[in-house]
UniProtKB/TrEMBL annotation:
Protein location: Mitochondrion
Organism: Aspergillus calidoustus
Protein name: Glycine cleavage system H protein
Major localisation: mitochondrion
Matching CDD domains: GCS_H
Amino acid sequence: MSAAARVVRPFASRALSQKLPLSSARMVSPTAGFPRGSIRSFSQSPFLEVKKYTESHEWIELADDGKTAKIGITKYAAKSLGDVVFVELPPADLEVSAGEPVGAVESVKSASDVLSPVSGTVIQGNAILEDKAKFINESPEGDAWIAEISVSDAAEFDGLLDEAAYKETIDEE
């Protein structure tokens, strides 16, 4: 044992054995001892929520129940449109087929239809967008979805692009 270790060891042992007052003790998360990424979260499973894309820059995310989905425009589309000033939301109970308009987005640059990636019946439009259309620019693939639909045939998801394939299409543009 080195001379420095002989000097420091007794001091360190005494310091570590002293009891600290509760006010100076810090709260430690129960997960602090686990290596990063080793804790599994059950709130979102990639197998339960399926997000797919179209070449016309729409996304659709199938919910946990496998029967409902949310439709919106991609980040790329929102950036290309610029500042969104108006969003036309679909009425409830509207029957749509894959490729048919389910709404429209109007910006200072242009207007564009939002096409439904799959067939189904509209449950509701996103009411947030009625009052705050520019929210699409802030969260295009999150809370700024355009329509929620009841999916007629979940097998139609198989013909859509996954995230990697979609990114390839926008890299080519």
